[in-house]
Amino acid sequence: MRRLALVLSASLLAACAKKEPPPPPPPPMAPPAPAPINLASVAGMWSFKVMGATGDSVLTTYTLAATADTTGWVMTLKDRKPMAVHVTVSGDSVMVDAARYASVLRKGQTVSTNSVMRLVGDKMVGATTAHYSKGADSVVKLRSEGTKMPM
User: Contact, 62 vs 45, CB < 8 A?
Assistant: First the structure.
């Protein structure tokens, strides 16, 4: 009888004991970082078209002479003198900053631009932010798409 009472007590204690929840699953693995861009793969002359952030109408065009490093890049707008641009690289992105110049789109204003571009297939695509010298809408978002010109 003692044995039966002991077995029943142990069974009752086991049944009343709190069960630990299973540990949560591990967080999903982050996708691998994109491969860093090799500037030698974009060196050459590029023909760019610039469109509004949401439309397909071409607002302006320019050429971009790219080198195998971050020095010596030159942007040339239609009927304008070539201008040096400042280039930096981060991961798979190329950032191109143009200092203030006379706007092609807004007569009588100056603009500076900051572009972030990536190589997608055989094109360079990206977003440009234009900072105009005056006006309520002095910051404008644009899209850029460049095609490498044959040598």
Answer: no
pLDDT in tens, 38-47: 999 999 999 9
3-state helix, strand, coil in the chain (%, to 5): 10, 45, 40
- From the list 109, 84, 106, 82, the residue with the least C-alpha distance to 97 is 84
Query: Which CATH number describes the domain made up of 39-148?
Result: 2.40.128
Q: Which residues pair with 3 in a beta bridge?
A: none
Cα–Cα distance, 138 to 122 (Å, whole number):
32
Chain centroid offset of residue 59 CA: 22
- The one-character DSSP state at 83 is E
- List phi, psi (to 5°) of 72: 80, 10
Which range (86-90, 104-108, 110-114) has the least confidence?
A: 104-108
Distance CA 124, CA 121 (A): 8
pTM tops 0.90? no
